[in-house]
Specification:
The complex is a heterodimer of chains A (185) and B (482). With 185 residues, chain A is an alpha+beta fold. Chain A contains five helices and four strands; from the N terminus they run βαβαααβαβ. Chain A is 42% helix and 14% strand. Chain B has a single domain, classed as Formate dehydrogenase/DMSO reductase fold (Up-down Bundle). In chain B, helix 5 packs antiparallel against helix 15. The chains are: A alpha+beta (185), B mainly alpha (482).
Chain lengths: 185, 482
């Protein structure tokens, strides 16, 4: 674990960039330099940044498929269970054989959507490690602008390629400003 | 990229041809947007806000009193009497649930269609959806009479081993409306998280820091987070799109599966969905035109936005007018004397003026003004038409529901419905609940999605300011060519 002369644990070396375009170009350089444990921070999602960082598609969609299928099966159990076994209901002599299953489709659809939406929301939080009330990046006073108009890039000290001078040189070369060490605590 | 010398020039001309009117006017930058939009929720409440909130919350409180009176005394306090078993209660339910549809259309369908202009209006439209669905959900709950039995709607095991009829459209409605509300909340909150982080980072008091800190979930704008976030948002939009079309379709099944003339029609699902979006956009404009004037948001909610919403009103209003005409045509063409009588009764019966004023003037004729550009660009005309549509859509639902019941098959049972003061004040009370909730929303939360509207600014483009052909394309990297 790297420490500063004052004894703080080092989380990362970070830089601020003047624009989304500058951050996008810098991300491509950091990706090509072979770093793995790094991240960029912006007030809004930047189009194409996933490719620029070398990240693939988010497989959150798998959880949503799982949620949707669970919802569909739940609806099938909730409808067929009572209607076929627990409480066979004869309404005005209307048919209630298996071929009336079409009347079950609306609720199957609704629960598919409901469970899929829950899966999307909770897997978004889960895959992002949220809610998380504390993060070392918040120790940097300039970082408050990340939710306003600031664009930041941080390379973590845990990355095997991390060397203080090498990373500083890379951030400078890509146009980073206010380059600093971010403390862990 | 074959090095042809004419390529950059070609690109230049194409870009000039497709140049668009900017969505954020006066070249406002990111910090201006943050400042102006967060500022609305951070400054002390202006005096007009307290006056407005005092009025609307008083109306809401009286509405709640009416609901309490209804529950404690019984549904006889309403004017509902056989054969008119459904009247203002279900009219109000359909009215409010319809209003919600514009919010989901803006947030989900326009998102999938990549309509960037939605970013200025989606947050407040989604909030409107939630508040409208809350008002809607009140009515089916209280109209059942024995309110404390409302939990029978849920398929929960009980002492009597009684279960619901899952083949009934009324049961579908329970699932449709509750799913709609829940998914709308999830979608709205997902969109809010980055903006709550903005308010957290700007907070100056301890209470605000704590509360926004909790609700922002520790959001830090990390791109590794944005990646999952954008996928979640896309999928929520994809799930909400069929959902919004299904909700009003299911509501219309409540009527369409009955045997009553004017209810028993297969045209109802698309007719109701178009009407819902029509009425909902009118309500979005009713709320946003005053809000943008008061908070000086003209650079974000531009004349272009109002113009586009007016066009959607014209389009969906024309669907609705077509559906009205088709109902009359089918009544005549079917040769069914009950059907013909019911529609004759709609124009010349006891509720004749509801039809002439509400359906014909407000819903069919007034939106036709939007064929003219100067009408779509004049906020007073737009506001007038929106108010007409708000009223017209309520009248339409009343005519469909109570108008059909008033004169059914047996003339001896005909009865004209008259609302009581409880009917009237319960409805006005829900308008109070709706406006109070909306006032609280604009007071405490960012009414425009900051993180989304920033993406509509040219500087948000990762290729902004870099002349074409001079970018460093690194080897091995996957580059988007678009």
């Amino acid at each position: 674990m790297m420490r500063t002369p004052a004894g703080h644990k080092v989380y990362a070396m970070a830089a601020e960039y003047p624009s989304a375009a500058a951050l996008y170009q810098a991300a491509k350089h950091v990706r090509d330099a072979g770093f793995k444990r790094w991240d960029v921070f912006s007030p809004f999602p930047i189009h194409g940044m996933d490719e620029a960082m070398g990240l693939g598609k988010s497989w959150l969609s798998g959880w949503v498929l799982f949620g949707g299928v669970t919802g569909l099966l739940t609806a099938a159990v909730v409808e067929f269970g009572p209607s076929s076994i627990l409480y066979k209901l004869d309404v005005h002599g209307k048919p209630w054989n298996f071929w009336t299953v079409r009347a079950f489709f609306p609720i199957m659809f609704e629960l598919t959507v409901l469970f899929g939406a829950f899966a999307a929301f909770f897997s978004m939080l889960g895959m992002n490690g949220l809610p998380r009330w504390y993060h070392p990046m918040f120790n940097w006073e300039r970082f408050v602008r990340v939710s306003n108009d600031g664009f930041f890039l941080a390379i973590e000290a845990r990355d095997p390629r991390f060397t203080e001078n090498g990373v500083r040189e890379l951030l400078e070369r890509t146009g980073g400003e206010h380059i600093t060490i971010v403390h862990e605590d | 990229m074959d090095g042809a010398p004419t390529a950059p020039e070609m690109t230049g001309t194409v870009e000039q041809q497709v140049a668009r009117v900017p969505l954020v006017l006066h070249r406002r930058n990111f910090s201006w947007l943050t400042e102006r939009i967060s500022g609305v929720a951070e400054q002390p409440a202006p005096r007009w806000w307290w006056v407005a909130f005092a009025i609307t919350s008083s109306i809401a409180t009286f509405g709640l009193f009416c609901i309490g009176y209804l529950i404690s005394t019984g549904v006889g306090t309403w004017g509902n009497q056989i054969p008119v078993g459904w009247a203002w209660d279900i009219t109000n339910f359909v009215f409010w649930i319809g209003i919600g549809h514009a919010g989901t259309l803006i947030s989900a369908i326009l998102f999938l269609l990549r309509q960037k202009w939605r970013t200025s209006i989606n947050r407040s439209a989604e909030a409107m959806t939630l508040f409208a669905v809350i008002c809607a959900a009140v009515f089916p709950g209280i109209h059942v009479g024995r309110f404390w039995m409302a939990w029978y709607l849920a398929p929960a095991p009980n002492n009597w081993a009684i279960w619901q009829n899952f083949r009934s459209p009324l049961m579908w409605d329970v699932f449709a409306v509750s799913t709609y509300f829940t998914v709308s909340v999830l979608f709205w909150y997902t969109g809010l998280i980055p903006d709550l982080a903005t308010l957290r980072d700007r907070a100056t008091t301890k209470v605000r820091k704590f509360l926004f800190g909790i609700f922002a979930c520790g959001w830090r704008g990390s791109n590794r987070n944005w990646r999952h976030y954008e996928m979640a948002y896309l999928l929520l939009a994809g799930l909400s799109t069929p959902l919004v079309l299904s909700v009003h379709s299911v509501v219309s099944f409540d009527f369409a599966t009955s045997v009553l003339p004017t209810w028993h029609t297969t045209i109802f699902p698309p007719y109701f969905v178009a009407g819902a979006i029509f009425g909902g956009f009118a309500m979005v404009l009713t709320l946003l035109l005053p809000a943008r004037a008061i908070f000086k948001l003209h650079d974000v909610i531009t004349p272009q936005h109002v113009d586009k919403m007016a066009k959607i009103i014209l389009l969906t209003g024309s669907f609705v007018a077509y559906a009205y005409a088709m109902e009359f045509f089918v009544a005549w063409y079917s040769g069914n004397s009950y059907e013909r009588f019911a529609f004759w009764n709609r124009i010349f019966g006891p509720y004749w003026w509801y039809w002439w004023f509400g359906m014909l003037f407000c819903n069919c004729l007034s939106p036709q003004l939007f064929w003219f550009k100067w009408c779509r660009r004049n906020v007073f005309v737009v506001f007038f038409v929106s108010m007409c549509v708000n009223a017209g859509m309520w009248f339409e639902r009343f005519i469909i529901i109570a108008g059909g019941l008033t004169r059914d098959f047996l003339p001896s049972s005909w009865r004209v419905y008259h609302p009581t003061w409880v009917d009237i004040w319960t409805y006005i009370g829900t308008i109070g609940i709706f406006t109070s909730l909306f006032l609280l929303f604009i007071r405490f939360l960012p009414m425009i999605a900051m993180s989304e509207v920033k993406t509509a600014v040219p500087e948000a483009d990762p290729h902004y300011g870099i002349p074409p052909g001079t970018q460093s394309v690194s080897p091995g990297g996957k580059e988007r060519t678009r």
